[in-house]
Amino acid sequence: MAEVQAVKDLDTVRLISHLLERRYSKQMRFVWEVGINLALRVSDLLSIKFTDFTDGRLIIKEGKTGKRAEIKVNPKTQMLINDIQLQHPHHVYLFQSYRNQRAINGPARPLTRRSVSKAFELVSEELNIHINSHSMRKTRGYHLYKKTNDIARVMVMLRHSSESTTLRYIGITQEDVDRDFTELEL
User: Which residues form the Tyr recombinase domain (predicted)?
Assistant: First the structure.
C-alpha cells in the first residue's frame, strides 16, 4: 500500500470535496472540509460532540496521545458546523450516524472510520491519487507550512514533538528543500 500524502494542489482539495458530496453524501463532504480545517486524527474528528464547542473553540482530549487540543474554529468551519446543527438539531455528534436502522433506533453514535475510509477510497480511485482519512490532517499541515515556512507552527498545530517527524508527516522531501534553495535567490 502506498503511503498516504497531503493533497498539495488546492484545486484537488476542492475537487475531492465536490466528489465526496456527489458520489457519496453531503455529510462526507463536511467530514472532509471540517477535517482539513481542524487537522485532527479521524478518530478524534468523528468523536466530536456539539457540546465540545465553547466560545468559538473546540476543546477535546485526543484519543491517541491523551493531549488536550484547544482549536479556534475558523469562520468557514463554524459555518459548516452551524449548517450541520441546523439540519440535525437533535444530534449529539457532529458527524452522527443516522442512515442505518440500528442508528435510528439505538443510542447516538458517530460515523465509523470504516464508512469514512470507504468514501475516501471511492474518490481516491476516481482521481487516481492515494488519499485516506489521514490525508485531511496532512493536507492542513502541508498548506500551513507552505504559507508560513514555519515548521514550529505546524508542529504546534499538529501537536508533534519533533521537526523531523512533522516534515516527514506533511511530505516535505529533500527534493522540496533543494527546490527552495535553487528558486530563492537573495
Answer: 6-182
